[in-house]
């Protein structure tokens, strides 16, 4: 059934809010469990993480996820394992995530400054709009404000992970990874959607129907 023009499209619906997430925490939890069972051996942790990473990849393929997305997830686990084996420090399993969150926060921030907010890019791509959403000043403004919520998401993760990583708190890093993965993403989607709806003026046709007006600026 086609979306109702009088009802704004939900970000949770567009971004697949019910399907992502918890599987991304399986490998880190497995690493932490293997590390503990092995008496602090990174080899036990790496083997457990790789086995679970392959199992999750197979499950995702079976449920119909895109192979490219599955490969990226499995590659991230493999890279984290290589880093740990190289350094011998268990907390380095989370180093790649720290770098990724820092890079993501910077990318979202730059996109807002350049008036190409990544929230708009992602949603516009999913809706097949290309850059048409940028010609709607109200929608562009809403996406820019909503993108700030995603910047804050990455900043929260860094604020939690960096002290734990510096203190070499492996178990706490595992717990933080679980709490700050899907629950935080779900909260981020909900809050950014609330920001978008508060920003769009009454009567706006919604995300699927950007108004064709020229926006000045880069």
UniProtKB/TrEMBL annotation:
The lineage of its organism: Bacteria, Bacillati, Actinomycetota, Actinomycetes, Micromonosporales. The chain crosses the membrane at residues 43-61, 68-85, 105-127, 148-166, 172-196. Pfam families: DUF3159. Keywords: Membrane, Transmembrane, Transmembrane helix. It comes from Micromonospora pisi. This is Uncharacterized protein DUF3159. InterPro entries: UCP010219 (IPR016566).
């Amino acid at each position: 059934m086609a979306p109702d023009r009088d009802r704004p499209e939900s970000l949770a619906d567009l971004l697949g809010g019910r399907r992502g997430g918890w599987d991304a925490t399986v490998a880190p939890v497995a690493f932490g469990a293997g590390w503990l069972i092995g008496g602090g051996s990174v080899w036990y942790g790496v083997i457990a993480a790789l086995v679970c990473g392959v199992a999750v990849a197979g499950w995702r393929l079976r449920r119909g996820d895109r192979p490219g997305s599955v490969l990226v997830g499995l590659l991230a686990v493999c890279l984290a394992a290589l880093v740990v084996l190289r350094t011998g420090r268990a907390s380095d399993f989370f180093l790649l995530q720290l770098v990724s969150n820092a890079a993501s926060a910077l990318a979202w921030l730059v996109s807002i400054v350049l008036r190409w907010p990544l929230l708009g890019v992602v949603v516009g791509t999913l809706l097949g709009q290309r850059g048409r959403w940028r010609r709607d000043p109200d929608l562009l403004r809403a996406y820019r404000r909503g993108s700030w919520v995603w910047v804050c998401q990455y900043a929260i993760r860094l604020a939690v992970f960096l002290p734990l990583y510096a203190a070499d708190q492996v178990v706490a890093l595992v717990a933080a990874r679980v709490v700050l993965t899907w629950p935080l993403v779900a909260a981020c989607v909900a809050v950014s959607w609330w920001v978008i709806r508060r920003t769009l003026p009454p009567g706006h046709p919604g995300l699927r129907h950007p108004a064709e007006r020229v926006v000045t600026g880069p």
